[in-house]
């Protein structure tokens, strides 16, 4: 996906990053040759430097939002609870991070009507997995929509909300979270950062020396997962 098609500007995202994610001064948001946006160094950054310090209060976690959801979702899986929360509460143009999230999933297999990959796919597991996850999303929306408070019933908005959680949420301390800033990073089988929770913040550090113009790269959560898992969850098949 080309970032130029996004309505959310780089300057707006940079401002959001500076306000909520305490970035290293030698970082900037820019369009990425890999996909969408990314974080890049503007000057040398030594190994083990703190790149981002993201307060947990800036994140959206399943454990935080469940109390605000209808009773039918109290014991729901965290992915579904977070998706329902986004579906109910997202207001366009009020939060540039969430605007980016919703813009970035237009080509996710849950959302898009374009099936280029499936049409040219010779892997029956990918076709099966995508069809299953679409059917599950349709069934979940059918069950939940009468209980969710929105101005109108919008299955596409629900699918986008679910695609955001599937593709962007992180698991820390046994709960799923949307972590603004950390999920700006593209993934690679050779990451150059690491992240962990420390003192009520998610700390992102450089795993190695980072020269100027280096893109920060996170690791895949399941580096050996089969292609169908990547495509159905993240909307792409990684190239090693």
TrEMBL record:
Residues 1-19 form the signal peptide. Gene3D superfamilies: set domain protein methyltransferase, domain 1 (3.90.1410.10). It holds the Pfam family SET. Residues 25-221 form the SET domain. GO terms for molecular function: protein-lysine N-methyltransferase activity. Keywords: Signal. The keyword Signal applies. InterPro entries: SET_dom (IPR001214), SET_dom_sf (IPR046341), SETD3_SETD6_MTase (IPR050600). This is SET domain-containing protein. It comes from Triparma laevis f. longispina.
């Amino acid at each position: 996906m080309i970032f130029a098609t996004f309505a959310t500007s780089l300057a707006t995202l940079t401002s959001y990053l500076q306000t909520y994610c305490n970035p290293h001064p030698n970082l900037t948001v820019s369009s990425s040759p890999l996909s969408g946006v990314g974080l890049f160094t503007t000057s040398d950054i030594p190994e083990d430097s703190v790149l981002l310090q993201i307060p947990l209060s800036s994140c959206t976690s399943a454990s935080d939002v469940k109390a605000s959801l209808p009773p039918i979702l109290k014991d729901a899986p965290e992915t579904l609870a977070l998706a329902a929360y986004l579906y109910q509460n997202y207001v366009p143009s009020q939060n540039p991070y969430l605007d980016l999230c919703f813009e970035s999933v237009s080509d996710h297999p849950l959302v898009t009507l374009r099936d280029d990959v499936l049409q040219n796919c010779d892997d029956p597991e990918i076709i099966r997995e995508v069809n299953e996850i679409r059917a599950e999303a349709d069934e979940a929306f059918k069950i939940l929509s009468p209980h969710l408070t929105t101005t109108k019933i919008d299955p596409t908005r629900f699918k986008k909300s679910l695609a955001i959680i599937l593709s962007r949420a992180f698991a820390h301390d046994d709960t799923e979270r949307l972590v603004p800033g950390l999920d700006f990073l593209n993934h690679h089988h050779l990451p150059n950062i690491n992240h962990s929770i420390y003192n009520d913040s998610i700390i992102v550090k450089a795993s190695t020396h980072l020269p100027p113009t280096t893109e920060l790269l996170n690791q895949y959560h399941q580096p050996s997962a089969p292609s169908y898992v990547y495509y159905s969850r993240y909307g792409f098949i990684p190239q090693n």
